[in-house]
Amino acid sequence: MSRHLLLLATLCGFSVALSAQYRISGHLNIGEEWQPKVYLAAIDKLSDYYRTSPDMIVNTAQVNEDGTFVLSGGNLPDEPRFYRLYLMKQQNTDYDACLYVGGDDHNFAHLILQNNDELSITTDSNTIAPFGNYTVSGSSDNQLMRELASIVYPSFYFYRIKFPTELKFSEDRLHADLIRFADTCQNPLVALAAVNNTDFDEYFDRDRDFYLGFGERLNQELPHSIYTGNYRLKCRYYANEEVTAGLPWWAGLSMLILALLAASGWWQFIRLKALQQLPPAHTHSQVTKADPFAELTPKESEILTLIAAGKSNKEIASELFVEVSTVKTHINKLYGKIGVGNRKEARAMVEQSLVRSLES
Known about the structure:
This protein has three domains: about 15-135, Carboxypeptidase-like, regulatory domain (Immunoglobulin-like, Sandwich), CATH 2.60.40; about 155-240, no CATH class; about 250-360, Response regulator (Rossmann fold), CATH 3.40.50.2300. About 30% of the residues are buried. Helices cover about 50% and strands about 10% of the residues. The strands form two sheets. A four-stranded mixed sheet has the order 4-1-7-8. A four-stranded antiparallel sheet has the order 3-2-5-6. Helix 6 packs antiparallel against helix 7. The chain contains 13 helices and eight strands. The protein is an alpha+beta fold and about 350 residues long.
């Protein structure tokens, strides 16, 4: 009798395990330049939304010659989270994979997924991109994610706009569309994806009430989600609030010192030292030349501080809760302002400024 009960329990457990599996199937456009394998990556931080790394991969599946695939498993957390399904080109590895947006190379789709989900992804056979004009079925949440993608993807071509005013109008319209989408979306996780795609650097100060209010929505609707705390930290960073609560005193002190340095105090010290070396009759242009850091914004100063400390773009993005692309944009701007072309030159300039300030 006991053996029968044990067998029954085993079968029940096996049945539960099977029922908890997720399954993604479909058809992709795959040419010779693409590896015949589809990857599923977990997005555990908002700053990882467009980042690729082997550490993020949770599953893979072969893509058949006709483009069909089936990817399944049962190892996901017991809550809906963001994931990315993508392909890699033949010349890429797990460590240098690239995401291509639009055109003939579009190679990814963002999804919301958990165990028990069954999704189907189908690409348009009239396109040659792996995820060209793809559709998602089996989940209303992921249909909303696809709708969001159709709003976001065109923005990756804003760099083609020649006129600054036209570019500004396009960016403002995109921001308004994303905010409207988030406000009207009933699913808080999809709404978060929309908000995460807004430009915090450009619009946080202007729409602070919206961003903080959305944080309150997450607190109420997704109180236990890993993204709620992550979003809260991101807002605190942009609001210049203290983010050291809950850390050991030594860690909090270290972050506070770094924040003080990054808030231009270090650069103001250098600037004052430089200005003290100039006669009162010097012009503004001469002062700017003597003070290469004078035109840096607080965020640019903070990033330059981290560059001088030897941090990589990925490490800086993780520390500041921003996208790597945002870090690169800041770096390009600050390089132009201080007149350097690479990290080595930037660190050398910082070191030289410190030496001059200490000697004077």
